[in-house]
Structure formats: structure tokens, C-alpha cells
Amino acid sequence: MLLRVALLACFAVSVAAARAAASDDIDVESMRRGPAVEIRALATVEASYATIWATLTDYDHLAEFVPGMKRSRVIAREAGAELVEQEGEASFLFLHFPIRVTVLATPRPPLAIDVRLVKGNLRQLEGGYRLEKLGERRYALRWIGLVQPESMPPLLGELVMRSNLKHQFIGMVREIERREAAAR
Q1: Angle at which helices 154-183 and 49-56 pack, to 10 degrees?
Q2: Residue 22: predicted pLDDT
Q3: Which of these, 55, 133, 143, 161, has the minimum number of CB atoms within 10 Å of its CB?
Q4: Average pLDDT over residues 126-153
Q5: CA-CA distances (angstroms) from residue 34 to 101, 114, 150, 173?
Q6: Which of 86, 55, 59, 56 is nearest to 71 (CA)?
Q7: Domain ranges of the chain
Q8: Rounded to whole angstroms, what are the CA distances from 58 to 40, 80, 89, 162?
Q9: Model confidence pLDDT, tens digit, residues 2-34
């Protein structure tokens, strides 16, 4: 009887957690693309365009609100793009993978920011954010990208990178929502 009650309680907690995640309207998928992992994330965000864009391009402060990121700073600006040095850690369960990269972030206002690896301990990182206006102060925010860790078995790499990007994407969405609430 006690075991049955415990199992029902665990089930109730997992259903509540699933509902909470669904209410955030965030979806993350991953699939193998050769040696890389394609990761697609989607969220519906209710905020002004200015708030969304300012948050996405706040490279010097990403470590303050993006989980797993320890440092992010613009080291150069060139022809409408920023060279951004980032350091952090991807983790999944007991696995931890340090990440040190320099990326070129190229904003293409009003609806895209492209990101590509310049150097670092990933073999591949390319992708970006996409915005789609759905209504007044309502946008679909997408991240679509290819990531390939340097030294991780493919299945393990997919799990770690998917988990990491999901947490980072949720952190970005929450910061957009926080800034929007503060602006109102």
C-alpha cells in the first residue's frame, strides 16, 4: 500500500512537471546529422521586439542568465558582426564537458542572428536565432543549429548537447520575459 501511494505521488509530480514545462511553450528536439547534432528549439514569447532583440544580443551579460555559461564577452566588432569569446560547461547527469569557444555572431535585423564557430573545443557550431512575428508583442523564437563536440561518443554527445542547449534556451526565454515584465 505504501509503495502504491509513493508511486502515485511520483506520477502526480511528473505529470505536474510536464504540465509546467508545456505551459512554458518551449520545445527542443535533436537529431543526428552525420557526426554532428542538429538541435532545434522553439518558444512562443510575449514581449516587445526591442526586448527580445536586446536580450539576444546582450553578449557581454549572457553568463548572468544563460545556465552553464561562466563567461561571455565581445572581443572585437567587425563589419556588422561581433566576435564573442565564451566559456562554460555542458552537463548531463554526472557528465560534464567544458566549452571554450570564440564565435562570430552576425545580427541580421529584424529577424535573425547567425552564429558560427571561429575557434574552440567544439568541432562544429553553426546556427542561429530566428524570430517570427505572430501578433502584437508575440513572437516565435527559434534556435536552429549544428553542434559537434570535439571528443565525445556520438550518442553521448547528442544527449549532453541537447540537454545543455535546452537549459540555455530556457534561460534566454526567461530573461526575455523578466526584462519584459520589468519594462511594463
Answers
A1: 130
A2: 35
A3: 133
A4: 93
A5: 22, 21, 14, 29
A6: 86
A7: 30-183
A8: 21, 15, 19, 23
A9: 223 232 333 333 333 333 333 358 999 999 888
Q: Report the predicted TM-score, pTM, of the whole model to 2 decimal places.
A: 0.83
Report which DSSP code applies to 133. Answer: E
Say which DSSP state 139 is in.
E
Q: What angle do CA 78, 53, 74 make, to 5 degrees?
A: 35
Residues 81-127 have pLDDT tens digits of 999 999 999 887 887 889 999 999 999 999 999 999 999 999 999 99
CA dihedral 174→77→117→93, nearest 10 degrees, is -30
Which three three-digit cell numbers place residue 174?
526567461
54: which 3 cell numbers? 536586446
Domain boundaries 30-183, corresponding CATH code: 3.30.530.20
